[in-house]
Amino acid sequence: MIIPCARSVNKNYDVVLSVVVPVFNEYTTLPVLLERVLPILDALPIDTQLVFVDDGSHDESASYLANMLETKGGLKLVKLSRNFGKEAALTAGLEYATGDAVIVIDADLQDPPELIPQMVEVWQSGTDVVLMQRRSRQGESIFKRLSAHLFYRLLNHTSRTNIPVDTGDFRLMSRRAVDALMSLNERNRYMKGIFAWVGMPTIVLQYDREPRVAGKTKLSYSKLVGLALEGLTSFSISPLRWATGLGLVTATFGVLFGIWIVIKALVVGDATAGYPSIVALITFFSGVQLLSIGIVGEYVGKTYVETKQRPIYIKEDVLESAPKKHTE
Ligand code: UDP
Ligand code: MG
Hints:
The protein is built from 10 helices and 8 strands. It has helices at residues 30-43, 61-71, 86-96, 116-124, 142-158, 175-182, 191-198, 221-234, 238-268, 275-308; strands at residues 15-23, 48-54, 75-80, 99-104, 129-137, 167-174, 202-209, 315-320. An 8-stranded mixed sheet has the order 7-5-6-4-1-2-3-8, with helices on both faces. It starts with 14 loop residues before the first strand and ends in an 8-residue tail after the last strand. Residues 106, 108, 110, 212, 217 line the site of magnesium ion.
């Protein structure tokens, strides 16, 4: 009998399902998370593992999790040496997840863990990626929703990799999808883009994104803007083309304006006015130049970071509790 690869239980991997949770200062949400996730995993008829990545939390998150490891089976804690950001934390989690399938979920319960059984079911029916698409976003400001909406559309417009609209990191991936993903070792990690780049048979499920159970978002607007820029420039070089296009348009405009001035001087004579228009033109063209240099700089900077070949994260410690085997 031939079993589809996405479903096969790979003998090298000891559990069927790993759930990866990046954690940064989530002390207030962790107890609620465990309370909700553990019974769901226990109820599944497969062996499971919960992998936490402590992304350099300043609160008690790491020690709380280390304590939980003493009492509960099937937990793993990867401690990073400092805060590397969610994308790096996810990479670490995926590296240490040993399941045949891996689910990535936020610690703040914005992604409802109650959907895990359904995701597993869909995966077992023979797909590689179960992608969770937000139907609604509760507890997020109109500004955040609008900017997210516009950003996803701009992103898809610019890049050749089709990054699904309104999806986050919440998803299930088969072992071969995870392995494929881990073969991409770029430093600039825009996870949503990387996930999409890998491809693989995908089924999209819709869900309602809930508000955070406790604590505040760890991604400030400045971090989000950084991430957005990262997304735009990591998966396409079209911003460079925009710069070229902008240069062409403004240069044409400059030439036409020049011709018009010469003709005007010849026909009606030169009245030597024009100070305001000169200042306006200088500011406009300097703006265009700076913008274009900025865009080029963005790519030069990326190349610089990539050439250093630094590791994506540094782990301080990996702790693991006894495996929890599912009993029929
Ligand atoms: N997170 C992380 N490192 C960071 C920032 C966030 O591991 O530097 C984790 C955080 O603990 C949470 C997830 O990433 O589990 C999503 O973060 P958050 O809820 O703050 O982002 P939002 O949902 O507002 O986009
Ligand atoms: Mg959140």
